[in-house]
Amino acid sequence: MYLFDEDIHLEKTEENGFHGKIASNWSINGNPDGGYLMALAAKAMAKCAQKKQSPIITANFISRCTPGDVFIRVEQIGDSTQFSRTCSYIFQDGEEKVRAFGTFKTENTACEVKRFESGPPEAEPMERCIAIPGFDNYTIYQNMDVRLDPRCAGWMEGRLSEKSEHRGWILFKDGRPVDMFAVLLMADSFPPAVFASQGMVAWVPTIEMSVSIRNIPKNCKRLLCRFKTRFINCGLLEEDGEIWGENGVLVAISRQIAQFRKT
Q1: What's the CATH number where 42 sits?
Q2: Which residues contact 226 (CB under 8 A, 6 or more apart)?
Q3: How much is the pLDDT for 31?
Q4: Which terminus of the chain has a lower count of CB atoms within 10 Å, N or C?
C-alpha cells in the first residue's frame, strides 16, 4: 500500500461514521495540508455516496487540525438521477474542524460539448524545472515531487515576478498513480502563487477551497499545473488552479480563498 493510501485509510465505526488518523506526512509548516484534509473528507463521502464519479468537493476550514485521531461523519443531502450530494464533518477532540460538501455524479459515457478556451500551461520539461525542497516542517515535499518552471521560481532566490503565478509538475515520489483523492491533495500542494510576486510571506492559510474534478487519465502518475492569483485586498486573496494530464486532458480546476499577511 502506498503511503498516501495508508494516511487516508478510514474505519467505519457506525452508520455514516468513520475513524481515521491525520498523518504528519503531508504538512505545510507543521500544519496538515488542506488538500490532504479534503482527501480524507472525500474518502468518507465516497464510501457513502450512491454515485462515485467526477466529484466537486468544497471544504470550509473552520479550525486548525493537528496530526492525530479524527472522527468523520457523513450526511446525505440529496440523491437524484444524475447527482449524489453529501456533506462530511471532520471532528478532532470533539470539535468540528472541517466541513466539506461533495457532489458526485454518474459516469460520463459521452461528452456532447467539449470546448476549451485556453489550454495547458507552457512549462519546461520536468527535468529542467526547480524542485521544491523538503524541510522538517514541510513534510509534504518529502513525499511529493513538486517542480516549478524556472520562470516562476525566482522568488526562491529573491527575484520576484510581476505576476503571482506558478506553473510546473507534480507527482508522488513513491510512484503512486493519480486518482480523485490524489487530485485533491495535488490541488493544494504547490507553494502559494502569491510567493512569485511577494516572496515567501508569513501567512496564507486557506479559508475555503473547491476542486472540480473533470477527467482523470488512466495510468497517470504526473500532472501539469498552473495556479494564479490576481487580486490581493482586504487581507484576502484568491488562487485559481488548472490541473492537466500530459495528453492535454483537463483533469481538474480549483479555487481557494486564503488570508494574506505580508509579515
Answers
A1: 2.40.160.210
A2: 120, 121, 165, 166, 167, 241, 242, 244
A3: 94
A4: C
